[in-house]
Amino acid sequence: MLCVHLVRRSLWCRRAAGCANGGGGLCMCVCTCPQLELIFLSLLLQLRCLLLPLFLFSVVSWKSDLHYCTRHLFLPLWQRVTPSPSPPVSLFPCFSLSRFVQRIPLIFVAEMIGAACSSAGKHYRPLGTLKPIHILNCARNYMQGRQILSQSHAFFSVLSNSVSFLSSSRSSYSTHRASLVRTACLLSYSPRTPSSLTRPAAPVTPTRGYCRSTIYKQTKSQRIPLDNMSIEDCRGFDEVNALFHELGLDIPILHHDEKATVEEVLDLLQKKGINAAGTKTLFLKSKKGELVMATAFKSTPTDLKFIQKVTNTKDLRFASNEVLQECLAVVQGCVTPLPLINNKEGRPITLLMDSSLQSSTQPLAFCMCRNDYTAVITFEDLKKYFEKIGYTYKLVDFGAASADAAVTGGSAAPAPAAPAPKPKKVSSEAASAKRGAAAGAPATAQSGETKLGIAVKREENFSAWYIDVITKAEMIEYYDVSGCYIIRPWAYYVWKCVQRFLGGQIEKLGVEDCYFPMFVSRGCLEREKDHIEGFAPEVAWVTRAGDTELEQPVAVRPTSETVMYPYYAKWIRSHRDLPVRLNMWNNVIRWEFSHPTPFIRTREFLWQEGHCAWAKAEECAKEVLDILECYASVYEQLLAVPVVRGRKTEKEKFAGGDYTTTVETFIEAVGRGCQGATSHNLGQNFGKMFDIRFQDPENNEQTLIPWQNSWGLSTRVIGVMIMVHGDNRGMVMPPRVASTQVIIIPVGITKDTTEDARQELLASCRRLEGELREGGVRAKCDLRDNYSPGWRFNHWEVKGVPLRVELGPRELAERSLAVAVRHSGARHSVAWDAQTPVAVAALLEDVQAQMYARAKATMETHRVRVTEWAEFVPTLNRKCLILAPWCGAMECEDQVKKDSAEESKAAQAQETREDARAPSMGAKTLCIPFEQPEPVEGHTCICKGCTKPATTWVLFGRSY
């Protein structure tokens, strides 16, 4: 350590003397002779390695010394030992504090040796990719081969012993082995099972690094389970890099932490001063096994229907991890065109490139087969890469408004030939349309087809259908923060209806509205031990204000127990202070990382949460059920959605509460349940946690803990409503929450219609609108003359307006209205007279009742009672909810979920299993219904292998 302190002291003296050279003092002396430099460095490193066993776990005390030593002594040495004017950009990637603490001091020593002794022209391999023994061996071999520091055998002996000591210290090394060892750089060690890997006949030598790499190939039977795969299982980095060098391409490659999104990569590049365009790559597989890769700018829409037209495929869906491993040897999140080099078996892959990429003035950012490396490459260099690996591509205008954009061939060499599809018999009209599209002319649209219509069938791809509906119906708009969405007026009106309806009901119960701040301190949040276990991964923290780090970070509330209850403890002193019954309408943040879905699962959402405290347990329990009934009314009376009232199992209940009650909904198209709202009885748990007490009215010497409940309902109600009622034409709005209940559209205006007749028709539409509004009907006229009546029909059909009134010259003459019902397609003729508003209002109520009845019948049809395990999975795969007997054991609950997932997957044919639409998720307990079908006595638990008698009927199902 003396040498290091001498360096730091001399450096301080040099700066005090006004020297501009940052490596002054002792460094200036030793830098006059390269041989002396190496001897000094060797001596310094020997001292550090001799002390290594004593300081192995003293990383913090070493960090500043090693940082000074490396920066102010080793850097000048590097500039003289190697021909390169300066070390590579990635020479010291680990000297930030966060990465430093994750490394062992020995590895830094070995890194400096390996870097100092690497040959000219070799690129530095980042430390995180190698084992210490590899660096040590390579450094020793290089030094002995060049006869440099040949006297330092004792030094290498000490270092070898330290490596052995470190390897035996599994507790310190194994913690970070996943980040220190890459699959592509294994020599004799694998973090996976060594016996599962087979060594090829000849190892591959990469151009990067000073360590010979051996690439292992896994047979299908030896494949690592897909659930355990990470970027360490990605291959191809060294091959791609070697190919870049072979082609003479100077491609900047940036090493960084794992990045989950393109935005994160672009932010990092911008901070590094690198101007590059973000890209996205879709790797798709059809039901027949055809593979398609499509690459475009990240902001360019990539419509699957368009891709299917361009590639002449059907039912394209995102490829699974298994397919990615077989074809590209990468995992999800690491897909770009670069891993095409891993397609050793030559599986035909159709490659589509957005034409705007070719004309881009910016280089393109692609992850380098792993999402912790980013390559910045121009399109011209990418073309050379495609030519070298033997792939052709098609330039496609993804940004074109028409789905029949022209397709032109690229200039690359031909790819492995795909098997020619069998010729199909097509009609003359279809053939004509095809020829027109090939020539660049748009194909003739089918009758009734418009660009406004929903492009995806609900039964074919429910997720894509849902996104298509909520965007085209103007319910949401995407925001530039992932998982957050703009709620547009058409959807926000639904939430306003919920607020009015539910707010009125809970006010009648005696609950008052209030508002608490959205921030919560770490101290308050961590007091809720049981509760915080469930929410800790979702909490968003504020750590900085402007350029200043906060002394204590604050969390954005995921829920408000920890915000409100410290003040309940302040306000509640006597039994006269009870009950406290507060409700709050607010927004909360839960930083969901796994596939957010608008309205259903988002990072920010609107909701109401009620928190009440009672003196008696019976009063608290009664309110729990009263509120649950209010929630059921929101769904059934307002949204026309049936629910199942029930109680959650111990495994599924709210953490920290005594029990949780719930209303569960059912999405027939995917056969899944969806939790609609919950009401929790917290017992006295939170009172004890936050020391909420009041004086016992019967004994002034004692204090009692109040009984509490909490309950909440969110904007998820909007998503459930859309999923339950929507169809292939778009939204279907229940009349009671529709912003516009009746849309009035003038029809029958032709070129022969006189201006007076036209104006009279438009005036009649306005007059009808006014009459309906006065009668309490939310009506609106669409008099836009720049759109045809058919276009306007489609527009309001997608938005789901319950009734459409068509008013033309004939209707005016007959004083009648032609009314089309959205949910059923039925048509009615309603007399236009003084009773018209009453008749229309009655028709709207009929529509509301019919929508609820249809949804209720659907749920009842798909709720099946099962008592034998042999019937469980087949019933589940028919997209049904299952009412089954259960013994109440949590182990059986877990086992049912596991067994149903495994058997569901095994029961499906290969073709169906590869279909992303096929059900494969296991069944979980949704609730214990309050309405039990019959006594459960005499039945055994549904769990396979369990012989215990059942204690209750429980509702199983797949869920959101």
Automatic annotation (TrEMBL):
Database matches in InterPro entries: aa-tRNA-synt_IIb, aa-tRNA-synth_II, aa-tRNA-synth_II/BPL/LPL, Anticodon-bd, Anticodon-bd_dom_sf, Pro-tRNA-ligase_IIa, Pro-tRNA-ligase_IIa_arc-type, Pro-tRNA_ligase_II_C
The cross-references to SUPFAM superfamilies, in alphabetical order and at most eight, read:
C-terminal domain of ProRS, Class II aaRS ABD-related, Class II aaRS and biotin synthetases, YbaK/ProRS associated domain
GO biological process, any: prolyl-tRNA aminoacylation
Segments traversing the membrane: none
The GO molecular function terms of this record are: aminoacyl-tRNA deacylase activity; ATP binding; proline-tRNA ligase activity
- The superkingdom listed in its UniProt entry is Eukaryota
Keyword list, A-Z:
Aminoacyl-tRNA synthetase, ATP-binding, Ligase, Nucleotide-binding, Protein biosynthesis
What Pfam families is this protein classified in? HGTP_anticodon, ProRS-C_1, tRNA-synt_2b, tRNA_edit
Indicate the segments forming the Aminoacyl-transfer RNA synthetases class-II family profile domain, all copies.
Answer: 498-734
Question: EC annotation?
Answer: 6.1.1.15
Q: Which reaction does it catalyse?
A: tRNA(Pro) + L-proline + ATP = L-prolyl-tRNA(Pro) + AMP + diphosphate
Q: Which PANTHER family match?
A: BIFUNCTIONAL GLUTAMATE_PROLINE--TRNA LIGASE (PTHR43382:SF2), PROLYL-TRNA SYNTHETASE (PTHR43382)
Under HAMAP family, the record lists:
Pro_tRNA_synth_type3
Q: What is this protein called?
A: proline--tRNA ligase
Q: Which organism is it from?
A: Leishmania tarentolae (Sauroleishmania tarentolae)
